[in-house]
Amino acid sequence: MQKKWTRETVFEESKKYSSRSEFKKMSSSAFRIAYMNGWLDEMNWLIHPAPKPIKWTKEAVFEESKKYLYFSEFNRKNVSAYEVARKKGWFEEMPWLKRRYAIRGFWQSRENVFNESYKYKTLKEFREGNYRAYKSAKDKEWLDEMPWLKRTERKPSGYWKIRENVFEESHKYKSTNDFCKANHLAYQSALDNDWLDQMTWLKKSYRMKMGYWQNKENVFNEAKKYKYKSDFRRKASSAYVTALEKGWFVEMTWFQPKGYERASRGPVHIIYVYIDDDKKCAYVGATNNIDRRDYEHRTHSNDTVFKYFANEDKDVPKYKILREGLTVVERQREERIQSLYYRDILHYTLLNNINATGENTGSLGSLVYKWTRSKVKREAEKYKTPTEFFTNSAGAYDAALKYKMMNKETFPWFYSKRMPPRWWNVKEHVFEESKKYKTWNEFFLKASAAHFSARKHKWEKEMTWLAYDQVPQGYWQNEEHVIEESKKYSTRTDFFKGCHAAYDYAFKHNLWAKMPWIKTKVKEQGYWTRERVFEEGAKYSTKKAFKKMASTAYSKAVKNKWIDEMTWFVSDVKPMGYWQNKQTVMEESRKYSSRVDFRWGSTSAYKSAISNGWIDEMTWLKRPQNYNFKWSRENVFTESRKYSTRGSFKAECPTAYQTARKNGWLDEMVWLKQKYNKK
Question: What is the pTM of this model?
């Protein structure tokens, strides 16, 4: 039974050891409790680990590299030695290190492919062990020349339609989940023929009854088990999706933002800096536990500070505290101010990216960002449609629903063409739209979303003003009539739009085999096998392109962790500092015609252009319509009278506030109260 660690027992346990590293190694659970509660600093009998200065001479690097088989392993486990070897050009002298990934064109060689195939006994092992070599052999028809690779015996056509074969296969497994994963074809056959209930030896997976999560009470009872939305989404995804679709989250007021307790603490935050005076480099950071953060900077091999000073063959210097006793809001603002000070005033090269810090960014920023009505409106102006608004800024969209701002009066540009998400879930909206039409068919053709919602919620009987299509009752329940109607169309989409009643019957009774003239791109269930996923993935050079062009296959690859085996994908992540080069940013911006397109097409490049002041040089980018609005003295003073404090003025209208601050007008605005006096 696991021991319950109290403060007394943790301290008693720690006194058995002389250093923190020994404590962590010998009693990891007690060390973790001490670390999380901040007790380590009170344990003065434990020696604080100091980074060992390592001089990476050529001999030392070569000795270290011989511990590993691959270059990637060397890089992962000892980044400082690896970087020294890379910079000095010693890799060519390390024949004992292998590369996991073959160079381009390697598997186009017959000799290389055949040498690789000798490692395997079966065709399946070859395919799973090295798919690229297997794919090359298959494409070039070399597989028939590899008799040492045994072929897996395939079941004849219709094998899994026979009851005895399916039952025999099912006895190999303990649960329906195992059966489904191991042999989907046999499982599907058992499911289609209602044989699963007869397989009493299989443990059935627990599932809610059909329509269970359509009940509001059931969803709310489930949601109340969780403190955070993220936990609700992870542990009850079906209920979460229903709540999202029906707009019930507005009523779920008990959910708290992640890290609520942490963010609600008082002024405990610190701004610190590590400096390399020789090369004028600096790392500006923020934390609420400087000892813990300093320990991470000095010991974690993947840490930015650790990497930099290890590459320079220097010890990590003592940190310097710039500001302390800050609230969470002040922390974000001050971190960016201090970063800009070191970069633009003192002309240091920053080791961290200031675009990733500052106000309203990161986990802390999202906690304190409150969507007021004016902020929601400004956020909504960035998007053309409600769907775009919902997709890119869910928090602001939910706030708009809460404030009942989703209407034609507040956002007139949203309602010119499309309705917002969940609009057609409201009965009044559907009824109002349907009264514009005379028949159900006309309603479907001109307002398909509203029509679908009416059928989904079973409102048809109440909509007596709509006449049904001029066919006898039950006409589309006849197979011959449906097949005859289907001959008018070439695709399922056209068939659905042209006569949805006939389409519904064809879909429910699976008549597609009798309609060869109806083409479809829909893959049947179970289509994306491992082999097909790999074949599809081989068409693309990056994961991003794979996801965009074949999302279902990509999802299957991620779910089954096959994506890690697709070693041919080139990373589309830019290296650190890539967008700090002015020429690179300028070239990227020329792909776009407006600032808005540039912002959404290449966010990182856009932020760099803004922070470095390059955006005004990009004259080929059209500015927003309201760009030329001038904050004159009169306009600024008029705007400022809407607020009672300087803080609210700055938060609600930052552009007017900054203009007032730069021109020294704030002192004249005596109606604006200050929360505290600056020292």
Answer: 0.24
